[in-house]
Amino acid sequence: MSHDYSENVLIQESAADLLRDELGWEVVYAYNTEQLGEAGTLGRKSYKEILLTRYFREALLHLNPWLTPTQLDEAQRLMEHRLSTASLLQINEEKYFLIRDGIPVTVKKPGGRTEKKYAAVIDFQNPENNRFLAVQELKVDGDLYHKRPDIVGFVNGIPLLFVELKVAGVDVQDAYTNNYTDYLDTTPHLFYYNAFLILSNGLESKVGTLGSKYEFFHDWKRLEEREPGSVALETMLRGICKKEIFLDLLENFILFDHSGGHTAKILARNHQYLGVNEAIKAYEARRLNNGKLGVFWHTQGSGKSYSMLFLAQKIRRKFSGSPTIVVLTDRVELNKQVSDTFENCGVLGAAKAGQFIASGGTDLLDKLRGNPSFVFTLIQKFNRADMEPIYPDHDILIMSDEAHRSQYGVYADKMVRLLPTASRIGFTGMPLLSSDHITERTFGGYISVYDFQRAVDDGATVPLYYENRGEKILDVKDNPEITDRILDAIEQADMDVNQQDRLEREFAKEIHVLTATPRLECIAHDFAGHYSDLWTSGKAMFVCLNKVTCVRMYDLVQKYWTDEIDTLKERIKSASQQEAQELERKLQWMQETEMAVVISQEQNEVQTFQKWRLDIQTHRTKMEKRELDKEFKDADNPLRVVFVCAMWLTGFDVKCLSCLYLDKPLKAHTLM
Description:
By secondary structure, this protein is α/β, with parallel strands linked by helices. It is built from 24 helices and 22 strands. The chain has three domains: 9-255, no CATH class; 268-458, Rossmann fold, CATH 3.40.50.300; 469-671, no CATH class. The strands form six sheets. A six-stranded mixed sheet has the order 1-4-7-8-9-10, with helices on both faces. Strand 16 (396-401), helix 12 and strand 17 form a beta-alpha-beta unit. It is globular.
């Protein structure tokens, strides 16, 4: 091969060699060697073409021998067509579903009728039945600019892989900031069909998707779950570009999440891909394990909800028999969050989540006796002892979120008796305790483990730092001893409002001390000073013992927050010019900061709060009239502090949350 050696040529050649010699891709070096024309090197007529139509049409005819010349042309037109008003990500999403699900072409029927039939673009079942081509230094022309990406990977003529390489001494982020973003600006059509973006300097590599910020690109360190891991390019290529893995990722591990009014393209992270495929193996062997697929332990913040989506998506696509997937949670708000995520990611098709949510025990039974694709329900709805077992003629898979929690024990046996032939998998962010026999009895042992330390090491979640503020609160001398009985009672009260009276009756002395006004005053004063000092760090969540205490703490913090503002104003008067500039910015931040109480409704709550001379209706109006969850997740929104006791503690991801203030006794799973 004769070409000028660029700064990354050795890395590029090594990558190309691995793709060709080990992974079986065809490799072509195109710079200054590509001949244009239908009979040319790649069949391109111009450097603007990015879909290799020669290979694309060959694949269509090979995979769909029934296609007529007219239908073949129609399929190509649909593949190349785009709306001029569509964004790049919208075009990419449209093309993705054509690639995954096939292209609808017109079939003429007797009597002049027509119908649509889908022409497969890729054979996902048989990787070797597709053409994998990696092109080095492919010339790509935009309207004004001429570019030459390091490697573009094609499957059946479709450009699905983009690889940008740097020399070892250059930070990988430079490939994103100075190269990839330039391609987006100058040759956006290069990414119309793209599935995977790989950035590397040989020693370190990142993979991501179109539309993602660099911080959402991630490592691909392991080929097997128990490996220590390597961030080198060769590991990523083996982990992503092996033909069967490449097609598996393309078909089953990409989602377009439309939550919050905007679209994000989600690619499974390394641990999700490995973990979900372990779950798939367990599902394949479900009849050998009496339906127990196992426990899927991936620590908090590592994308457990998306893992559930990937598993559901793959099972629905790859297994015959139209299984019903029952998604179990134990809290109303968590049930809504999970079902909304399934809807927003398109896993429910065009249907709305509401039609799959069981409204009560009777509705749950009706749904289970049918064959809906999904059912979302609370574990508490398995509450009748007289339910006759259901023996459907199709598979049922129970996916239980937060499967570790103790209340599952009350209903799990009834669930198993009602659905004796169902398969069961438990998802948890916590390891099983040695005393937790119920979870293992219901679901089985571990099938995938991704613990907190590994998640921090991989950058999948951020490290936690604990500070004991109790030592700073000198006036609080009589904190009660918190026993396991108290902790269990608090947890039960969170789950069932009827347990609140039991908690307050049995542990009246301890609860009185924990909620005494002098103690709350002291804590509120400390919070106002502490969080205002962290004003550049992010948002804060304050966890209180119960709902009434949330409102009491909110009121107390308002008082001390105002005091902090007054103190700051006085400081500014005597500050130097530079210091005053900084303090003015802090003052503006404090004055703009909004706080809110977020608690679930309960019967007679107005009267309950009136006994404490508290106004719950103002807070309830804010909770009902506004989308506080979206506001709190928005880093630029001034809603920066929320007071909670149970809501938002589970399954609620806030990337801009920096401080969690705990004034509630918690243990084990609930604490995590």
